[in-house]
Each structure stands twice: as C-alpha cells, then as structure tokens.
Specification:
This protein is of the alpha/beta class. The protein has helices at residues 33-45, 61-70, 99-113, 132-145, 158-171, 194-201, 237-253, 257-266, 282-289, 298-307, 316-321, 323-327, and strands at 3-5, 12-14, 17-19, 50-52, 78-83, 118-123, 148-154, 176-182, 204-208, 276-277.
C-alpha cells in the first residue's frame, strides 16, 4: 500500500479508502458484526488507514462498530465521517448543513465513534438552503476547537465548491481538502466540471461506487437482455457493453474485472483520485485490495475510455470546435502550461 498527500494538506492517506456503509444490517443488507470486523482487519492488515463512514450509515451502527474497531490504535487511522442527513425525520433542525445541525451531528458522531476528534468531516450533500458563509465559518470553528482536523465536501455542484474555497481563502478559514463524488466508467459526468475544478483547486477526489453498483464486476452480463428494462438503470445496454470490455481486459491481464475498473479510476496522471472500496463479504475486499498489484497499459485505458466516452456538452464541445478562431495559425506554436 502506498500513501498519498490528501489534497493541499500534509495528511497521509492510503491509496484506497475503506467505505463502511455495509457495516450493519439495519437497512436490510450489509454485513453482521463479525464479517464487518474481518473486512476491517483485511483492509488494515493490507496497510489501509483511510476509513469513511457517516452519521446515517446503518442508523449509526457503522460509526459505533468502526469506533470500536479502531479504539486500540485510534491515532493510526484517518477517520472520516459526514453530516447533513437527518437523525430525526420529523425535526427540521436534525438535518441540513446549517451550524446547529453541524455541531449537533458532530457531537453525536463523536459519541458513537468513541473518539475526541474526527480527522476528516465531509459535508454529505448540498441542501440549497444554508449560506456558504455559515457552513465555512462553522467548519472552521470545529477545526479551531480541535474536534475536526480537515474538511471535505460531497455530492455538491462544482461552482458551489469553488465559491466556498475562494471564500475560505479570502477569510483565512479552513478550505475543503477533499471532494467525494460518484465516479466510475459508467458515471463519467464529473469530468465535465467537478474533476477539472478539483484539479485546479488542488482538491483530492474520493469516488464512491467506483464499481458502478457492481455492474463493472461483470456479474450482470449473463442476464437476459429482455429483462434489462425491469432492473436498475445502471444495467443499461451501454453500461453492460462497458462491463464486457472490462471483463475482456481482465481476462488479458489475468485479474478480476473489479481490479480493472478500480484501476481505471485510480490511474489519473494529473490529479489525486482515491477510490472508496466497500464490501459485504471478506472475499470482495480481498479482491479489491489486490488492484494495487495490477497496472493497466495505456492501450487498456484507451479502450476503456473509448467504450465509456460521454459528451462533455456546452461549453466544452463548443470550445473544441472553436480552436481555429481562438488561436488562428498559432495553435501549434503556443506552449501550454502543464
């Protein structure tokens, strides 16, 4: 396992993050205590130190179990949790991004995790009601109190993240060091705005669902095409074609399809991408961890890029067509910054 600097900080995190939404069975799926502990141990024994949970995961069980698992070596692990989602469905101040819920949720998470501090606190999702100033000042207060060390943001439009970090820089407040988004071979739309924004601002990216809800493991390829419509939208004809190419490349490399899909997500040369891997079975986490032993060749990446390509839309596609009026005959004579 190698370790990466998290965004523009000095924090060292492992190149794979363990997602723990499967820790607990309250939602009708996931895994029991013993299996969760074995998954955690497999990840930790492989050198993983970056753990991701949230206040809502399995009604708090994920945080409670994770807190117990790390208690003997708390300072070794980089513990990330989230706030925003409700803890009471019928109470307006037990949900959202505002300061009252932020402080309340963090205090509740600290108790469930049985720890004095959270290494990384994520804003779980944008609520479209709380002013950016209130959020960034509240997060900075938590950092100054020592209850949180770093902050990140998840599932939020790029322009909001950029505005928030610009404000934090101007006010000398703590800025977002990480961005958590859905990103995989079957969900490449973050390449339009979110990934370029993260690169420009030096923000680390931690993709969730890097296996596309299991589609990219190839397990749905044997399903009859006539039944596709009655299943998840993730299992579209396009997505199954992508999964088929992933399986072909896995066969060529002698590895699993999951390892190929994870490595496509990991192997971004120009910015830091740390996939979040999760599992409900020990064999799944063991297989996912082996992706660090596999390297995709440029030809493999090109094949995967081609089969999964998306339209970037306006203004990106327009600007590609407008290179001549923008640069005239000088396009090839201008050295662009790396």
């Amino acid at each position: 396992m190698h370790y990466k600097l998290f965004g523009k900080t000095g924090l060292r995190v492992s190149e794979l993050c363990l997602g723990t939404m499967t820790f607990g069975t309250e939602w009708g799926w996931g895994c029991d205590y013993d299996t969760s502990k074995k998954i955690f141990d497999a990840y930790a024994n492989a050198g993983g130190n970056f753990l991701d949970t949230a206040n809502r995961y399995t009604e708090g069980t994920s945080e409670r179990w994770l807190g117990e698992f790390i208690t003997s070596d708390r300072d070794h692990f980089v513990l990330a949790t989230k706030y925003t989602l409700y803890d009471r469905r019928n109470d307006p101040n037990f949900m959202g991004n505002h300061r009252k819920n932020m402080i309340r949720s963090v205090e509740a998470s600290l108790k469930r995790l049985n720890t004095d501090y959270i290494d990384l606190l994520w804003v779980h999702a944008w609520d479209f009601t709380t002013p950016i100033e209130e959020i960034m000042r509240g997060l900075d207060d938590l950092v100054r109190m020592g209850k949180v060390h770093y902050v990140g943001i998840s599932d939020t439009p790029a322009w909001i993240v950029a505005q928030a970090n610009t404000l934090a820089e101007c006010k000398n407040w703590t800025a977002f060091a990480g961005l958590q988004i859905e990103y995989s071979l079957i969900e490449r739309t973050p390449e339009r705005e979110l990934l370029p924004m993260a690169k420009a601002l030096g923000i680390a990216v931690t993709p969730w669902a890097p296996l596309g809800a299991g589609v990219l493991t190839g397990k749905y390829l044997q399903q009859e095409s006539g039944r596709l419509a009655e299943n998840s939208a993730k299992r579209s004809v396009r997505n199954l074609a992508i999964a088929q190419e992933v399986v072909h490349i896995a066969s060529e490399l002698g590895c699993s399809a999951a390892q190929v899909a994870l490595n496509w997500t990991r192997q971004h040369r120009s910015q830091l991408v740390i996939p979040i891997i999760g599992a409900s079975k020990v064999k799944q986490i063991e297989d996912n961890l082996q992706c660090i032993q596999v390297a995709l060749l440029p030809e493999h990446i090109e094949r995967l890029n081609t089969v999964s390509t998306i339209e970037l839309g306006f203004p990106h596609d327009f600007l590609k067509r407008a290179q001549d009026p923008i640069y005239g005959d000088m396009r090839e004579q201008i050295d662009f910054a790396p």
